[in-house]
Specification:
The protein has six helices and no strands. It is an all-alpha fold. The mean pLDDT is about 80.
Length: about 140
């Protein structure tokens, strides 16, 4: 999970070209949610140390806001690359702005398996055996 997170944040910080596998997107989303939750908890703990719950919430939300701002481009980049994997343009993400159904539709698209073989956005990321082997080597060590 951490390898996918590092790949999205450090190697593809503002990369909106190419394709992203489902596992790349969902492992990044999971790690991102866990880090965000940990920052909020850390803020609450700091607030307890200061003896004021409001101060803790302010610190927690400030940490969360800084982290969210720092990971905005990688988050958008991995979503755009994920949409590319299913053959959609990155602009298709604006469908999420449609009330009620937009978010559900995007969620379904993010869960959809990518197109087999190369498409107009690049080669199939599942066929990149070298990348899979590199990630496997890191996890085994």
């Amino acid at each position: 999970m951490i390898e996918w997170y590092k790949k999205v944040v450090f190697e593809n910080y503002a990369n909106f070209k190419g394709r992203a596998r489902r596992s790349e997107y969902w492992y990044y989303a999971l790690a991102n949610a866990l880090i965000s939750f940990a920052l909020l908890i850390a803020g609450a703990i700091l607030g307890g140390l200061f003896g004021d719950a409001v101060t803790g919430l302010i610190i927690g939300y400030a940490l969360f806001a800084l982290y969210t701002f720092a990971t905005l481009l990688p988050s958008l980049g991995v979503i755009v690359r994920r949409l590319h994997d299913i053959g959609k343009s990155g602009w298709f993400y604006f469908v999420a702005l449609i009330p009620f159904v937009g978010g559900i539709w995007i969620l379904i698209l993010l869960c959809t398996e990518g197109e087999y073989g190369p498409n107009q956005y690049g080669p199939d990321p599942k066929n990149n055996i070298e990348e899979i082997n590199e990630i496997g080597k890191v996890e085994l060590q």
